[in-house]
Amino acid sequence: MTLLVISCVIAPFIFIKYSPAFTISTDQMVVINDSLLNAIIEAESSNNPNAFNRRTGARGLTQIRLIAWQDLKKHYGSKNKNLNYYQDIFNPSIAREAGKDYLNIIKKYLIAKGIPLTYKNLLTAYVWGPDNLYRYGSWRAPKAGKLYVAKVMSQCSLKD
Known about the structure:
This protein has about 160 residues and is mainly alpha-helical. The chain has helices at about 25-30, 35-45, 65-75, 75-80, 85-90, 90-115, 120-130, 130-135, 145-155, and strands at about 1-5, 5-10, 15, 25.
């Protein structure tokens, strides 16, 4: 999906024109880089590769839950076919890769569902679940989820 926004201000309205001359891919606007991944890891596990959340069952650096692991196996089967969630998610390199791959799955989900691809929406979907974001919108995310998003975005100096 490509989008170019050229705005023309005509008081007091803003009209938006779309032009094929200069285009920006929406998934290029939201980049999953080491800075973002490090901020997520800090927020999720405080850099503890053995982190385990008894309430949710999330594990490892990136606090991947079993349901997310199953999505990863479905989308990246050949890459993960010999991995065991209960053991391998505690390996820091596997957890980082799983977190990065899961963020990419969420990006595709947001685009497919017509949800604006922003860092706020990406992080809300990561912490609260993509289906919750789709059903209720980010404004109805729990307070803890909103604080999480603000913390990660602040650590990366991201603006939405």
